[in-house]
């Protein structure tokens, strides 16, 4: 007999244009197809929801929703009114009385299990959850804020990030106390939660859809690519770092190099900066499919200095066959080996030299490309991830009952 799962997401999962959405939708699609669960997905929904009906039906049995918050032109400024609240700003801006009512009504039907996606989703949870419950942590939220503190150069920005870091640290710990099982996406994240005295942490691997992200050998051109939502602060910092610190060094060696930044909502200040400097860097904005851009590049860059958890983009690039140059943080939590599956570069000079090396060495490009695809195929398919997630769900139900 099928079990009933309520899955609560703080954001609408489509289009799948950021790592958390991709990870969650792939897991739900595989569990839904597996047939052991009836899945009721609860999330905010946009006005044009009918455009995504087929996608929604592919990941759940039932979909319940509330109105997606409207974010106006001045949202980045108006949200700062929450700066003095005890709750972190990103959590408060997800809050919705309608959303809490929808989740409460669904919980009153006594599902066999409820899963809250990201600690943020707990803003919709009642004070006491009387069914088996899981919190799915895609990263260590507080760690993201801590790293923003470390890289911020503006004293005001540093103070704001530090303020939010301490609030998120408290919120995250208090939230996890309410759940029977904590799911982490890496052993590193699991170790962090266990250091906070949580002994109910289980880990799933990060994976990718190998059928969708089909392999092609890397291109032979002076072209780099980066993919990621460009309204996320960690990606903005990564590309800003690339423009300011790495690109000037790179073009001294490869004057004709081009970078394509693929992702929604690139900030106007970055676009203007590139135009002013006359750099050969293109911002695509939102695209329906990142694959052609990655297949068309010789090097995939991950110049991340901020973030936590694991980055889906890494395994997507590996599956697609584009060799990677990444900081240690960019591949954090992933069991991949430098010089075999990617080139590691934690300084501006190392990043530059690694890119130049790949652009000019076809044999190295192909070696890393093939090694990376083989590893993902053997150990990190989305099916393996979904099976691990489903196993934890069934164990949580059994344990609570």
Quick overview:
By secondary structure, the protein is an alpha/beta fold. The protein has two domains: about 5-205 and about 380-400, Glycogen Phosphorylase B (Rossmann fold); about 225-380, Glycogen Phosphorylase B (Rossmann fold), CATH 3.40.50. It has helices at about 20-35, 55, 75-80, 90, 95-105, 140-150, 155-175, 185-195, 235-255, 270-275, 290-295, 310-320, 350-360, 360-380, 380-400; strands at about 5-10, 35-45, 60-65, 115, 135, 180-185, 200-205, 225, 260, 280-285, 300, 325, 345.
Description:
This protein is an alpha/beta fold. The protein folds into 2 domains: 3-207 and 381-400, Rossmann fold (3-Layer(aba) Sandwich), CATH 3.40.50.2000; 223-379, Glycogen Phosphorylase B (Rossmann fold). The chain contains 15 helices and 13 strands. The strands form 2 sheets. The chain has a 7-stranded parallel β-sheet with strand order 3-2-1-4-5-6-7, sandwiched between helices. A 6-stranded parallel β-sheet has the order 10-9-8-11-12-13, with helices on both faces. The mean pLDDT is 92.
What is the SS-derived class? alpha/beta
Number of strands: 13
**Order of strands in the sheet with most strands:** 3-2-1-4-5-6-7
CATH T-level fold name of the largest domain: Rossmann fold
Report the uncertain regions: none
Identify the CATH homologous superfamily of the largest domain: Glycogen Phosphorylase B
Can you give the mean pLDDT? 92
Strand content: 15-25%
Cα-atom radius of gyration: 21 Å
What is the ordering of alpha helices and beta strands? EHEHEHHHEEHHEHEEHEHEHEHEEHHH
Query: What's the end-to-end separation, in Å?
Result: 16 Å
Number of helices: 15
Query: Can you give the helix content as a percent range?
Result: 40-55%
CATH class of the largest domain: Alpha Beta
Tertiary shape: globular
| Count of folded domains | 2
Label the CATH architecture of the largest domain. 3-Layer(aba) Sandwich
The major beta sheet can be summarized as: 7 strands, parallel
